[in-house]
Amino acid sequence: MLSKNTVKFIKTLHQKKYRNLEQKFFLEGEKSVLEVMDSDFKIELLLATDQFMESNEETMQSYRGELLNVTQKQLESVGQFQSNDSALAVVCMKPNHYFDQPQDELVIALDDVRDPGNLGTIIRIADWYGIKHLLFSEQTAEFYNPKVIQASMGSFTRVKFYYGDLAKVFAQWECPVYGAYLDGENIHQLDQVNPGILLMGNESKGISEELAPMVTNKLTIPGSGNAESLNVAIATAILCDNFSRLGV
Amino acid sequence: MLSKNTVKFIKTLHQKKYRNLEQKFFLEGEKSVLEVMDSDFKIELLLATDQFMESNEETMQSYRGELLNVTQKQLESVGQFQSNDSALAVVCMKPNHYFDQPQDELVIALDDVRDPGNLGTIIRIADWYGIKHLLFSEQTAEFYNPKVIQASMGSFTRVKFYYGDLAKVFAQWECPVYGAYLDGENIHQLDQVNPGILLMGNESKGISEELAPMVTNKLTIPGSGNAESLNVAIATAILCDNFSRLGV
């Protein structure tokens, strides 16, 4: 049975403050829940409808955590989705771990990307292109924000990330730092790139003054129209696609 | 002075039903308002703060429509933005005009793209790559939805669009129809493309059964990771970038 206390607890996880306090977050919808069940994240509590349990019998059989059988109405009352007839999971956060410079891999670094939808979309793009490591400045949106988790479409389970001082990390790592600018080298004319860091800036301010001097390669996405700029997730995708074409 | 009736009128424009009835929509924020003032859209009413008028003196001098000087607080009470210290415009819609097949140009067609943020972002991408014509199925998100206008970042003023039966249009036009699939030709291996239609499908269902047989060229964005798919706006951007590289 879904107790009042459990309802109250899950509702507190809608707020960042309580997520941090509890070191737990929640996610909802069949796809995200199945992805997290198939990952190394620890699930604290699973709320699932009859329908979810029936259509995912095998997955449910190997699930060992706490389970509450709930109705669609109950799910919708605790989550953020307007409509959810499947499941919601309360999951333990992973600690913020620094990682060493990966060899022969592109790493995406985000300099104050604030919009949770953009962050989630960038995580999904990273996962599409097989990029496993992400660096986030302290002011970048929170990885465990429900909108980030939702936009990542399960890809959040497959990336490693570290929140910290990007300038310090860049100073320690010996590799090129690629940054998107309006006056850089045309990415369609690159004939070689090396693994390194792809640095993407804030939605309105771009790459910060502190990090700009650390960019070793300024890149530009050529456009022939009149839009002044591209959304940061869109630009990330186009750059990743151009890197992938060159084997990085 | 901002009358109660004007407040009430603008608030009705938050709803699609009233936008259609009045054939008017609204947009807010300095960038969008300046872009629409610089376009061939007819502005019905402009609400502007002292700050907006002072920092855009020249633009204001050539503005001939109705103007109301308002406070930031008043702007925020009628619009959707949490914070708006500049302006809000009520603008006349353009009629839904069919256009003939443009020559030597790529046209983007959207088959039931439902999310307003995706539609606005795709309009911005089109404008970046100089794509001027867009075709929308009837079930595609509404062009004048405030979220579409906002996500397009002013680019909505520079594209032509037509809502209608895509199958009929495709049957009339003689050109290739490119569609994104998971099992198509690798876009990194294309060495030539011709102007035509780039068809993008619904967020969850992809390209509809009705239109799928009309796709002449199935394309695939190669990925080496584990994400099952890409967001539709992201895929549109990557495809446009690959077409632009080949001169289309």
TrEMBL record, chains A, B:
What are the entry keywords? Methyltransferase, Transferase
Q: Which GO terms describe its molecular function?
A: RNA binding; RNA methyltransferase activity
The tRNA/rRNA methyltransferase SpoU type domain sits at 106-240
- For this entry, list what GO says about its biological process: methylation; RNA processing
Q: Where is the MRM3-like substrate binding domain?
A: 5-87
**According to its UniProt record, which protein family does this protein belong to?**
Belongs to the class IV-like SAM-binding methyltransferase superfamily. RNA methyltransferase TrmH family.
Its protein name is: RNA methyltransferase, TrmH family
User: Lineage of the source organism?
Assistant: Bacteria, Pseudomonadati, Bacteroidota, Cytophagia, Cytophagales
